[in-house]
Structures are given as C-alpha cells and as structure tokens.
Specification:
- This protein is about 30% helix and about 30% strand.
- The protein is built from four helices and seven strands, in the order E-H-H-E-E-E-H-E-H-E-E.
- It has a seven-stranded mixed beta sheet with strand order 1-2-3-4-5-7-6.
- Strand 2 and strand 3 form a beta hairpin.
- Helix 1 crosses helix 2.
C-alpha cells in the first residue's frame, strides 16, 4: 500500500470508498444514504482548515483502498486535540493489516510533523472488538463509556467507548 496525503482529486474515489464501506451497517457510523458528495466536501473542508487526512492506494492498480482523517474542534481551548477520527478500509482489503499500517502512518505524521497535537480522540461501538484491539495496539486507552449512545439499524442500542491517544513527543504529554 502506498500512503500519502489526500488530494482534492481524491474526492470522488473517497466518496466511492465510503459508499462501499457503508454498505455494512457496522462499517462506519454513517448509513449509506448519509454518504453524499456534500458529506465528503465537508470532510475535505474541515481537514483543509484544521485537520489531517491520509489515503492508502493499492500498489498494483493505484485504486484508493483506505482513508483516515481527524480534525480539530475549532475551539481554542481544545486546539491541541484531533477528534472525529475516521478510518475506512475497502472490504476487500480488511483484515490484512492495511488499516493498521495507515493508522500508524497517521500517528507518525502527528508525532513527526504536528507536535502541537497532544491527543487524538475517537469513539467506537463497544461490540467492535476487532477495531478496539487495533486501537489498543496503537496506544489508545479507553477513557469512558456512553451508555446506549449508538442506535443500530435494527433499532437496538449499544454503548460507545471513548478512547484517546497521547502524543509522546508533545511537550505537555507527561503533565497530569
């Protein structure tokens, strides 16, 4: 997989990637009908103003197979935090280490080029054990649980777990 920063020319490929991933109701938090071109425009606008987005391409055919992004809150007191982290991997490439490789590159980008970022926050369904395992391997810790926050497509509810990663190179990382 070739990892690089996302470009404006990637919008259509990212839109298609999100559409495919959203076919599985547990693929990402949004339902397939919520994945619109406008939604992708909002992601790009947010990242351009105050975020980071990387993509992964298949080395063989250069198809876009994965994307990760996070943005700031847009509030000065939280300017050291990236939030709304989203990782999508095409279903044909899931379970093969591509998501982990892209996620690690994202964290490396923070450590090496964005020392002002102290922490990254994300939410995950409590039932998503595969993703939770990945987050823990990458150094995320669970900081909270929101009871029955997520309503599944079938109408059932489940808890969301709040997780965070702290930048080891941020000068304030060791202050409690």
């Amino acid at each position: 997989m070739i990892i690089r920063k996302a470009l404006l020319k990637d919008k259509e490929a990212i839109y298609k990637l999100y559409q495919v991933v959203a076919e599985n109701e547990r693929g990402i938090a949004r339902m397939q009908d919520e994945i619109t071109e406008k939604y992708i425009d909002v992601i790009f606008d947010s990242v351009e103003k105050q975020g980071i987005m990387l993509v992964g391409e298949d080395e063989g055919n250069q198809d876009l197979i994965a994307e990760i992004h996070a943005t700031k809150y847009g509030i000065k007191i939280f300017d050291h935090i990236l939030t709304h982290l989203t990782l999508v991997v095409h279903p044909n490439y899931q379970g093969k280490g591509f998501g982990k490789k892209l996620f690690q590159a994202f964290l490396d980008e923070i450590v090496n080029n964005n020392p002002e970022i102290r922490r990254i926050e994300l939410e995950s369904r409590a039932s998503n054990q595969r993703s939770l395992g990945l987050y823990k391997q990458l150094g995320f810790v669970q900081e909270g649980r929101m009871k029955e926050k997520t309503r599944n497509k079938d109408g059932s509810f489940e808890d969301s777990l709040l997780m965070a990663w702290t930048n080891p190179k941020n000068e304030f990382s060791n202050i409690n």
